[in-house]
Structure formats: C-alpha cells, structure tokens
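User: Can you predict the 3D structure for this chain?
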Amino acid sequence: MTKTIAFMLLLAPAFAAAADKAPGNTDTPDCSVLTGAAPKTAAEYSCRGAGYSVKGDYDKAIADYSKAIALDLKLADAYAGRSAAYRSKGDNAKAIEDSSKAIELDPGFARFYQDRGAAYSAKGDQALALGDFSKAIELEPGSAWAYAGRGGVFRAKGEYKKAIADYSKALELDPRHVQACSGRGAAYYDSDKYDKALADYSKAIELDPKAPGGYHDRGSIYSAKGEQDKAIADYSKAVELDAAFIVAYSGRAAAYLAKGLHDKAIADYSKAIELDPRPVDAYSGRGLVYEAKGDYAKALADCSKAIELGPKSPDARHARGLVYSRKGEYDKAIADLSAAIELAPKDGSLYQDRGKAYQAKGERSKALSDFSKASKKKPGCGVLTPWNCK
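Assistant: Here is the predicted structure, written as structure tokens:
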C-alpha cells in the first residue's frame, strides 16, 4: 500500500488555483469552456491549462501554463496552476518553485500558501508545510481546505490530537468536506479509536459514494477489527469502482487469507502483481498464502522475489522468515526476521515472530526478550497487517 490514500487530503484540485480569479486578474475569462477555441491571451492559456489539469493531462497543462507565463510574467494564476500540475506529476521541487513565484507576485492570496504547503508536505518537509498552511489560515480563516491540509501535516508529524482538531475545524466550516472527513478518520485510526474512524470513513463514503478510496479505508478498519466479511465487501466495492486499484486487491487478498480462502487470496495477489510494476507486497502476500497451503517451494520463490524487488522491504524479509519458521529452518528464519527488525525496529510483530523462532530452538532467554519487546510495540504495516499501512 502505498501511502497515496492517506495524503490525498493535502492535494487541492490541480485546476483550482488557476481557475480562481486572484486579486488583480480582471481579465480572467470564463473557464467553463476550457479546451475548445485556441487561446490568444495569457489568461486564456492559463484557463485552458486548468482544463487539461481537470482531464489529468498534466503535460499539456504545463505547456499551456508555460505559454501563459511567457506572455505575462506577472500572471500569478499561471504559476500556481503549473505548480499544481507539477505536484500532480510528483515533481514537488518544481511545484514549490512555482508556488513561491506566485506568492511573490501575490503575497496576500491564501490559496498559494496552501498549494505550496501541500508540495512541502508531499516532499516530507513538514515544518515548512506547517508554516504555509498556518499562513493560509491567517489570511483566510474560513478556508476548510487550509485546516484540512494542516491537519494532514500534524498527522504526518504524529500529532494526532492536533490533526483531529484541525480536521474537525475544517468540517465545522464545511460539513461536506470529504478529505477532512477521511483525514480525521485516519487520525482516529492512528489513535486506536476504531469506532470513531469507522464513523468518519462511513460518512466520507456517504458524501462521495463513487470514490474508491473511501471503501478501501473503511475496509482496512473492518480488517483491523477482525470483521473480514465486511472488509471484503468494501474492498470489492473499491475494485468495482476502480479496476486498477492495486492496494484494494492486496487488502482483499489479506482478508481472504484471514478467512482461509487461499485460492481467492492467490487470485487477488496475482492481480495486484499484474497491475503493479514492482509488486513487492503482493509477492510477499502470495508467498504467505502458498505457505498456508503447504506449498513451501512456491512460498519461498515468491518471498525471495519480493526481496529481490525490494531489498529494503521489512515486509518481504518478514514473510520469508515466517515461511522458514514453518519449515523448521529456524536459523534462516531468525536471520530474515533480524534483518526485518533492522529495517523496521518499531514493528512489534517482528519481535513476536522472532521470539517464536527462538522459542522453537529452545533459546528461552532470547525468546522472552523478544516477547517483552513485542508487548511494548504495535504491529507495523505489512501483508499480515495491511490495515496498518498509512
């Protein structure tokens, strides 16, 4: 699982900054017709760029925004629109550069700080992101998007109470703000408040029933609660809405595995492998299904393939360690689990499983040490606990 589902709340629509009329831009045309007639002015190129962004054609959007900037170096909207397009392509450095230029041209427009804050957050610069979202709130205290964005930053910093407070403020300002609702659900989940998380995810689905992410997120909560049938129903709805939603296939596969439906789990992991160019988690997960079926050769092949594709994946090492343990090859299991612990020292499940391997070898003191460490840590994100993947 990729992180994607957890930070989408930070990303305002790519066309928003360009389509809005910033102060001083009195010549902004009607953007309801965006890609029809050939543009002539800078504002019209900027407007068409917004249209391409709406369609997801970010390269064409960037080209139009760049043409707008060439015609009018002081058109802040064009810089902001191009920034959003770059951010949608994952080029956060260029997004920050363009947002900074927009801010330089119009330092009083809150949306520009909000957009730069989103790029900083996506880049991992949470301190700078926090400053920008706070500035946006200062300039526009009624902006639900700014509060939702800052909530996402607090969540990324592990400050869940502050995150929940900001998401709640966003929802006070806009009760139909789907991203704030989903974000608060995630923060509640991070705080182990599953029932509140479930309520928020269900509300997000009510607000936007065609968004696959909402069903995936709620499915993850149901899985964490052990309600696998409900989880499977939600994951199935997610893939019905988006047939290429890789993490939903993996989540459903894990739920099938938990129910002992091995063939269905293998089918879903195989679909994820088909869709994902580097399917580390799917290979690890399928390996564990083969292990559960007693097919250790296929299990080791899949887990080893996962390690080959992701040598720094603790999940892949964890999975192969479990297979070796089941085969009774405890030294190999301990080696893999120890490597996984080096990569993810806060994952309690790794200590628990290594402890079991030590116990099976008769090394009681090492087993007790690992069990003690496991009791003080939470399970991490992995094929055994996909609901923990943020």
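The domain at 1-140 is CATH 1.25.40.10 (Serine Threonine Protein Phosphatase 5, Tetratricopeptide repeat). Residues 42-55 form the longest helix (14 residues).
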